[in-house]
Fold this protein.
Amino acid sequence: MYSVLIVDDELAIREGLATLLDWESLGYVVVDTAANAIEAKHKYELHSPDLMIIDIRMPGRDGLELIKELREDDPELHIIILSGYADFSYAKRAMSLGIDNYLLKPVDEDELHLYLTNLSAGLAARAAHRKKHAAVKIWSREMLVQSLLLDNGPQAPAALEGPAQESGLLWDSYQVVLIRLLLQDNADNGPSTAVKTRLAASFEEQEWGIVFSLDSYLGVLLQPSYQKELVRQLMVRNIREAVTAQGLECIITAGDMVDSLEEVPASKESALTRMKEHFFYDEPGMIGPDSLKLKTGLPVKPEEVEPGLAPVTERLYFAMDIGSINLLPSLIQEAGALMIAAGYSEMAVKSRYVRLVTHLMNKLSLQYRELELLHSRMDEQVEQIYKHTSLPKLQSHINGLLEQYAGGIKRDDIEVLIKRMLDLIHRHYPENLKLETLADVFTYSSAYLGRLFKNSTGLSFNSYLDNVRIGKAKELLDQGCKIHQAASEVGFSDVDYFREKFKKIEGLSPSDYRRKNSI
């Protein structure tokens, strides 16, 4: 539909023209009316009509003055003059302003009908021309930006300054934004083109910047705005809506703000750097100069990571075993902090987390038969780790997995603290059990927990653990196991220390015990 704005100081004429024809059947719609030149100018700016029908004689500025002002803004606007006088001087002045037709009141319906029919073809051609011109303009500006970013020679920005000025690209500042579409199976069967087309149209309309393609990315050269923060939020939302419409997700990074065309490639490079390191940012919107990269304190040598992860893994296991799931997030983050400090890559972090989660799930499933169903789906659950694009989201996913596993364990109704500790000791006596570790997962101080344990059992934690280990060692010796093997099996890495503990508890050495019991 082509839009029509009627301007006349007489209400009856305005209403009469609006109802004189079946405008819709001719392909037109009367969008509004105005009673004078000031109102008409305001409504022209509001509606941008294709055709205006204007009375010559109105209070204040007359129709010819209005037309002259409109022509300065829009030389192609179609205009019909209405007049109650067959005055040649008026008609001559009107024609000099490039009007389409001069109609006398009362308006001849057939004459107006014929004119509107003929005008449709002209309006269609004008619309096609505007569309083509806009497309060419967008394409030209994109090609200019691509040339600026791809040609790194020292003369490139200077050579492009002339075309940049012609295209309106000499701005006060520039910033490159890169968009990486997370395509299914890395196959792009058209969604990137659809996203780009939608963004190019909206960004040009909003004057936010120029959309372009660069290698495997979509990009935007941002135009400066006084409402920078608001534009940034609207732009990110616009991008995500365009991407979501194609059933995809994306990562958005922004380069540093620069002040000249020569520095635009540097803005691109900083955006690329952030794109490559996007995994280590906790930023749900657009990763930019103000985004904070996840960091730890002092650096860690790569060879120190595994020794550092071992106690963390141990505490994770015990926390899951006893159901202290509130400890899981901090322990998962502690593991991540170690890997970040050692400079692990995104894939290295994911692979190590996979090993950690698999180890915990396997160990728990051997201990609890009720976890068999969950364990059967382990591969599918663990595979999701590789699909996350940020470390915080990955850690949240892992926390959910471990919580699910811990929640699948059927625990006794008796939640007595000491009973749970004794159960852990009898099941895990060969391992590196420490009171401090259990105090951490039970959220008690080690001194307080130690007193509770001794008051209940009559023995300190370490004494009780030594008794359990020596008791298991006696069983192994009775079965013919060698002394050093028995020591290792029950958790003693030093055989001399084992002999000392054995003699202290049993009153005789392991060798004497074997001889006594073999008689």
Summary: The first helix runs from residue 11 to 20.
